Amino acid sequence: MNRSRRKFLKAVAAVTAMSSQLKDLQTSSHAQQARKKSIGKIKTIETFTQGPVSIVRVRTDSGAEGCGQIAPFNADISALVLHRQIAPHVLGKDPADIDSIVDRCIEANYKFPWSYVCRALAGVDTALWELRGKAENKSVCELLGGKPRPIAVYGSSMSRDIKPADEADRLARLKDTRGFRAFKIRIGKVCGHDQDQWPGRTEALVPAVRKAIGDDVSLLVDANSCYTPAKAIEVGKMLEDYSVRHFEEPCPYWELEWTAQVAAALNVPVAGGEQDNNLAQWRRMIRMHAVDIVQPDICYVGGLTRALRVAAMAADAKLPCVPHSANVSMVSVFTLHTLGAIPNAGPFMEFSIEPTDWTTQLYEPALNVQDGKVAIPDGPGWGVTVNPKWLAKAERGVSEHR
Ligand SMILES: [Mg+2]
Questions:
Q1: How many whole angstroms from 45 Cα to the centroid of ligand 1?
Q2: Which CATH superfamily hosts domain 3-23+142-386?
Q3: How many whole angstroms from 222 Cα to the centroid of ligand 1?
Q4: For residues 345 and 311, what is the distance between their CA atoms, to the nearest angstrom?
Q5: CATH architecture of residue range(s) 42-137+388-400
Q6: CB distance 121 to 105 below 8 Å
Q7: Strand locations in 70-225 (E)
Q8: Ligand 1 centroid to 57 CA: how many Å?
Q9: N or C: which terminus of the chain has fewer CB atoms within 10 Å of its end residue's CB?
Q10: Which residue, 190, 166, 145, is CA-closest to 326?
Q11: 323: CA distance to ligand 1 center in Å?
Q12: Under a CB-based contact definition with an 8 Å cutoff, are residues 158 and 121 in contact?
């Protein structure tokens, strides 16, 4: 390990409380939960699907309820998986037993590992967390031991088609109007086999953006599985010349050894893990130090319960956790509450700067960036209300305990 990398890890350790703190918070929260009076057994699980997103509402036989969300995109398929393969293991259970419900759903689907099962499970898990928060009159952030407050965000560009000069201009404008103190841009090509979106784009983009946003704003980049190790290291050295502080998914994400090789060779911290939803794979990734910054996606990994386990593994290894939250659906709400509570939260949360019509009417109040920060929604549960008009237009599915 070179000196810069040791320095980086030491700096991380300095701001990272021990994972035992997180475990203590979870344990005390569970103990508090056990002392509460029963909120009944899970009676119905409803899905409301519209466009790329599906909201989940869980109700108990005593009338308690909570809302969550399935991972966006192909959510109609995930909703079907929820009713067919998740609901039978959840209905009739005590909603306080979130950990065991989640584990049972994974094990019962061991022939159908990960993707759609985890996407669907995330909907139930996040609804159960809200149900619990409402029952205790606390926000999820408070259930986890945190306190609702503004969280610093990085403006995350999702575009590779934008020209370097146009990207630089729009980020400089957002810095001035919304106060962002960090931005992430896209380099290379998605699963690009070392190719760029067009020749020379990355080499033009990074200096143009750095010049436009100034040296006092953090610059992050995402390669979305583009490079072989040799090319990633070459690109990474260029990134270091422009003080980039986060090099995300440099290699095909499933090639852990490649990513570890890049992380060991570079001073710029390597980030990754957004697609990873197998906790054993996460353990391997963290043990081999494939990444310096861990990025579970709360909806892809199967919900908050499993994301917290990844965060705890990262804290054990003294690594910061910056969950992937690439759209302003409920996943950004879940991520705000999480970052408000975990001891190893990174300095900025991902916040998409791309307008999306499928998220604008989904819930209220909307999340807004002010002075580069977004407030954790206050109030019981997730602190937001799914828009009744949106629900009325959505396709409803229901599973019921009989
Ligand atoms: Mg990414």
A1: 31
A2: Enolase-like C-terminal domain (3.20.20.120)
A3: 6
A4: 9
A5: 2-Layer Sandwich (3.30)
A6: yes
A7: 150-156, 182-186, 218-222
A8: 29
A9: C
A10: 190
A11: 10
A12: no
Ligand 1 center to 90 CA (angstroms): 31
From ligand 1's centre to the CA of 324, what distance in Å?
7
| Ligand 1 centre distance from Cα of residue 173 (Å) | 23
Distance from residue 224's CA to the centre of ligand 1 (Å):
6
Ligand 1 center–CA 274 separation, angstroms: 6
Q: What is the 249 CA–ligand 1 centroid distance (Å)?
A: 6
pLDDT by residue for the chain (402 residues), tens only, comes to 454 455 544 544 444 444 555 554 454 455 455 445 689 999 999 999 999 999 999 999 999 999 999 999 999 999 999 999 999 999 999 999 999 999 999 999 999 999 999 999 999 999 999 999 999 999 999 999 999 999 999 999 999 999 999 999 999 999 999 999 999 999 999 999 999 999 999 999 999 999 999 999 999 999 999 999 999 999 999 999 999 999 999 999 999 999 999 999 999 999 999 999 999 999 999 999 999 999 999 999 999 999 999 999 999 999 999 999 999 999 999 999 999 999 999 999 999 999 999 999 999 999 999 999 999 999 999 999 999 999 999 999 999 999
β-strand partners of 55: 48, 69
Q: How far is the CA of 3 from the centre of ligand 1 (A)?
A: 27
10 Å Cβ neighbour count for 13? Answer: 15
**Residues whose beta carbons lie less than 5 angstroms from ion ligand 1:** 222, 248
Could you state, in order of their start, the residue ranges of all structural domains in the chain? 3-23+142-386, 42-137+388-400
| Residue 78 alpha carbon to ligand 1 centre in Å | 21
Output the CA–CA distances (angstroms, integers) from residue 14 to 7, 145, 147, 164, in the order listed.
10, 20, 21, 36
Distance 44 CA to ligand 1 centre (A): 35
